[in-house]
Amino acid sequence: MSARGAVRRGAAGLCIGAVLLLAACSSSDGTSDSAEAAGAVSPTTTRAETMAPVLDDRGLRFKEALSAEGLVADVPDETLLALARGLCDQLAAGVPEERVLELARPVAAYAASASDTTGDDAAHSYVNAAREHYC
User: Fold this and answer.
1) What is each CA distance from 56 to 45, 62, 77, 78, 134, in whole angstroms?
2) How far apart are CA 88 and CA 133, in angstroms?
3) What gap in Å lies between CA 98 and CA 100, rounded to an integer?
4) Helix 97-112 / helix 77-92 crossing angle, nearest 10 deg
5) Are 17 and 110 in contact (CB under 8 A)?
6) DSSP string across 36-62
7) How far, in Å, CA of 5 to CA of 133, rounded?
8) Could you give phi then psi for residue 66, rounded to 5 degrees?
9) CA distance 26 to 32
10) Do 71 and 113 form a contact (C-beta atoms < 8 A)?
11) How far apart are CA 94 and CA 100, in angstroms?
């Protein structure tokens, strides 16, 4: 991997982490599902041994809608789930569309880098997919 590729992947990791934090903080009841969304496990067990698949039917529909547009790339299911929850919480709270798009932009831009889509178009796709398939 080139130095540029390593920097891009590192920056994407930071963006995804920020989205997880924002999604956890935007929970409408003030509680955080971040441990659940992040797939928390004890140090002596693996995720496969202790947990069911991360995505439920709604999550799978969300992921499939994004996949149809080439926007999943290597975004982990945990990140997709946290983002979908955060987007839906903000949409339900009546947050202006531009602010909702801000939450989607880091992950959408990362996913768009592996497709022929621009970051802004991808952010709109993430918000629309959440609205139509997850919320």
Assistant:
1) 22, 10, 10, 11, 10
2) 10
3) 5
4) 160
5) no
6) HHTT---TTS-HHHH---S--HHHHHH
7) 32
8) -70, -40
9) 8
10) no
11) 9
**Residue 62: how many CB atoms within 10 A of its CB?**
27
Cα 32 to Cα 42: distance, rounded to the nearest angstrom? 19
Contacts of 23 (CB under 8 A, 6+ apart): 34, 37, 82, 83, 85, 86, 87, 89, 103
- What's the pLDDT tens digit per position in 1-39? 444 444 444 545 544 554 544 444 444 444 444 444 444
Tell me what the mean pLDDT of segment 38-42 comes to. 45
Longest dimension (CA), the chain: 44
Report the amino acid identity of residue 68.
A
The amino acid present at 79, given as its one-letter code, is: T
Tokens of 43: 């140090």
pLDDT range class, residue 90, cuts 50, 70, 90 = very high
Higher pLDDT, residue 49 or 55: 55
